[in-house]
Design goal:
By secondary structure, this protein is of the alpha+beta class. It has helices at residues 55-58, 98-101, 105-108, 172-183, 194-206, 214-220, 230-253, 259-276, 283-319, 329-352, 355-369, 381-405, 410-437, 439-477, 483-513, and strands spanning 3-13, 35-50, 62-67, 73-81, 84-90, 114-129, 135-148, 155-165, 187-188. It has an 8-stranded antiparallel beta barrel. The longest helix has 39 residues, at 439-477. The two termini are 53 Å apart.
Length: 516
C-alpha cells in the first residue's frame, strides 16, 4: 500500500560545509524558532532505479529503495513545482512495488528498471520547533557518497544542507531560514536533487555524461527551438499534447483532481490537430492514431462524465428548498455516484496498464520524431494555418445555423451538441495557431471557448436529464419517492431553454470577434 507526502524543501551548499569543516549553522535566531532539537545522526542507504537510458532522471522523477532513518522503504518523487515534490511511499520489498511501477509506466513503458546509483548518507538532523514544541522544519547536514551502478564505477562525495518544511507549514518560513543560512555563507545548491548531482559527478568519471539525456531526446524527437514553417508550428503543438498525456499519467492513476479531464483534453487537442491540419500531416498516418486517441478519450470520459454529473446534481439538490426534497435523495445520489466511480476507476487503471495504451504512447513518440509531413508543411504558417482555422470556423457556423433554424426537441439538441464539438475543435485549432497568427487567433480561440461553454451547458442539461431518469427509476424500484427527481428534471429543462434563447445573441457576438 502506498501513501503520499507533499515535500517542500531546499538544498544548500557552500564553504561552510566543505573541506572537512562541515557543521550546521546556528539557527536558533530564526524568527519563530523557540528551540533547535538535536535528533542525532541517521545512516541512510539508498539505491536509485531508472531505465538504462535514464528516462526517469530526464523527467526529474526519482525512484529509490532506502534503508535507515524513519521512513525506510520505496520512495517515488514526482515534481510539482520548484522545490516541491510529491513523495509516494511503499514498504520495503526486494523488487519495485507495483503501486510505484505503474506510476512511471508512461515513461518506462516495457523497459526494465535497473539500479543506477547508490547513495550512502550520514544525516545529522535538527528539528526547528516553535514555542509549543510543534515542528516548523527539519534541517539536516548530509555527508553523501555516491557510487555509479550501471557501469564505469564512477564515485563522488559531497556535503549539503537540506531544509524540509513541516507538513502544512508556511513556505514563507523557509525564506527566514534561508536568510540565516546565507549569512553563514551558504547558497542554494545548483543541483535540484541528490540524484541529479550524483549523475552529473559520477557521469564525468564513468564517461556516461554524454548519454545522460538520451531517453529524453528519444521521446522529445529533437524539438525545434524556433518554429519557422507551418509544419514546425503544428509539430510543436503535437509535442506539447504528447508530453501532457505522458506527464498526466501518474496523476490520473492517483485520482488527482481534474487530472482525468486534463488528459482527456490533451487527447482531444491532438485529434483536433489531425483534423484541422490534414494538409500538413498525412491523414493516412494520423487517422489510425486519432482513432486510438478517441478510444482513450472515451475511457477517460467514463470517469469525467461521472464527475460532471455528480457535481451538477449535488449543486442542484443543494439549491432546492427542503420542502421539495422527498425521500433519501442525497443518499441515493451518493450511492449512484460511488458505484459508477468505483467501476470506472478500475476499468481506467486496467486501460492504463494495458498493451493498447502503451502502443498508443509509442505511436505518439514515432509521430513527433518521424512526422508524416505533406507539402503544405513547408508553407508559410500565416497562410497555411489561417486557412485551416477558417475552415474549422465555417463548420461551426453551419452547425450553429442548423441549431438556430431547428425546432426545440431532440433534433435541436443533437445540432447543438455537434456545434459544441466543432466549436471545441475550432478553439483548439485557433489556440494552436496563436504562435503563428498572434492576436486574431487568440480572439477566435476566446470566442470559441465562450460559445463552447454555452453549448456545453446545454449538453450538460441533456445528460443530467438522462441521469435523473435513471435515478428516478432506481428510486421507484426501491419504493422511494421520485418526486424530487421530477422537480430537478423540470429545472434542467428550463436551463436548456434559457441556453437556446441566449444562442442567437451569443452567436452574433461570436461573429463580431471572429476574424482570422
Amino acid at each position: 500500500m502506498a501513501d503520499t507526502k507533499r515535500e517542500i524543501e531546499r538544498k544548500y551548499e557552500g564553504p561552510a560545509t566543505e573541506n572537512g569543516t562541515e557543521s550546521l549553522p546556528d539557527l536558533s535566531g530564526v524568527p519563530g524558532v523557540a528551540a533547535v532539537v538535536d535528533k542525532g545522526v541517521a545512516e541512510l542507504d539508498a539505491t536509485y532505479y531508472d531505465t538504462p537510458d535514464q528516462r526517469l532522471a530526464a523527467a526529474s522523477l526519482t525512484l529509490r529503495r532506502r534503508t535507515g532513518g524513519a521512513d525506510a522503504g520505496w520512495h517515488l518523487k514526482l515534481p510539482v513545482s520548484e522545490g516541491v515534490r510529491d513523495e509516494i511511499r511503499a514498504p520495503l520489498s526486494d523488487t519495485v512495488p507495483r503501486a510505484l511501477s505503474g506510476l512511471v509506466r508512461s515513461r518506462v513503458r516495457d523497459t526494465e528498471l535497473v539500479p543506477l546509483v547508490r547513495l550512502l548518507s550520514a544525516r545529522d538532523v535538527r528539528h526547528l520547533v516553535d514555542g509549543s514544541g510543534a515542528l516548523l522544519a527539519e534541517v539536516s547536514l548530509d555527508r553523501v557518497r555516491a557510487e555509479r551502478l550501471d557501469g564505469g564505477g564512477g564515485t563522488a562525495a559531497w556535503t549539503e544542507i537540506e531544509v524540509e518544511l513541516a507538513d502544512d507549514g508556511d513556505p514563507a518560513f523557509l525564506d527566514k531560514v534561508e536568510k540565516k543560512l546565507r549569512k553563514a555563507g551558504l547558497h542554494r545548491s545548483a543541483a535540484p536533487s541528490k540524484l541529479a548531482k550524483a549523475l552529473a559527478e559520477t557521469g564525468k568519471q564513468s564517461g556516461k555524461q554524454s548519454g545522460k539525456r538520451s531517453g529524453k531526446r528519444a521521446q522529445e524527437g529533437g524539438r525545434a527551438a524556433d518554429p519557422v514553417t507551418a509544419g514546425d508550428h503544428v509539430l510543436a503543438h503535437l509535442r506539447a499534447q504528447r508530453d501532457a498525456i505522458v506527464e498526466l499519467d501518474p496523476a490520473v492513476r492517483r485520482d488527482v483532481h481534474d487530472s482525468v479531464h486534463s488528459m482527456r483534453v490533451a487527447t482531444r487537442r491532438m485529434r483536433g490537430t489531425f483534423g484541422s491540419y490534414a494538409k500538413v500531416l498525412d491523414p493516412a498516418v494520423t487517422g489510425p492514431i486519432g482513432e486510438e486517441l478517441k478510444w482513450l478519450a472515451g475511457e477517460l470520459g467514463v470517469d469525467r462524465d461521472r464527475e460532471v454529473l455528480t457535481e451538477r446534481l449535488t449543486q442542484a439538490l443543494a439549491e432546492l428548498p427542503r420542502t421539495l426534497v422527498g425521500g433519501p435523495v442525497r443518499a441515493r445520489l451518493r450511492t449512484w455516484a460511488h458505484a459508477r466511480h468505483g467501476g470506472s476507476r478500475r476499468r481506467l487503471l486496467a486501460v492504463l496498464d494495458g498493451k493498447r495504451y502503451l502502443a498508443l504512447l509509442a505511436a505518439l513518440d514515432t509521430l513527433v520524431t518521424d512526422p508524416p509531413l505533406l507539402g503544405a508543411a513547408a508553407g508559410d504558417p500565416e497562410k497555411v494555418i489561417a486557412k485551416a482555422v477558417r475552415r474549422d470556423f465555417a463548420k461551426v457556423s453551419g452547425l450553429v445555423g442548423q441549431a438556430l433554424d431547428g425546432q426545440p426537441g431532440t433534433d435541436r439538441d443533437l445540432a447543438m451538441h455537434e456545434a459544441r464539438k466543432k466549436a471545441k475543435r475550432a478553439r483548439y485549432s485557433a489556440e494552436a495557431a496563436v504562435p503563428a497568427l498572434d492576436a486574431p487567433a487568440a480572439r477566435l480561440a476566446k470566442a470559441m471557448k465562450s460559445l463552447q461553454g454555452l453549448l456545453g451547458d446545454h449538453q450538460d442539461s441533456v445528460m443530467t436529464r438522462e441521469a435523473l431518469r435513471e435515478l428516478a427509476a432506481l428510486a421507484h424500484a426501491a419504493g422511494e419517492s421520485s418526486f424530487t427527481y421530477g422537480v430537478l428534471y423540470g429545472r434542467e429543462e428550463q436551463r436548456a431553454a434559457a441556453v437556446e434563447a441566449a444562442l442567437p445573441e451569443a452567436w452574433r457576438a461570436t461573429l463580431e470577434q471572429a476574424s482570422v
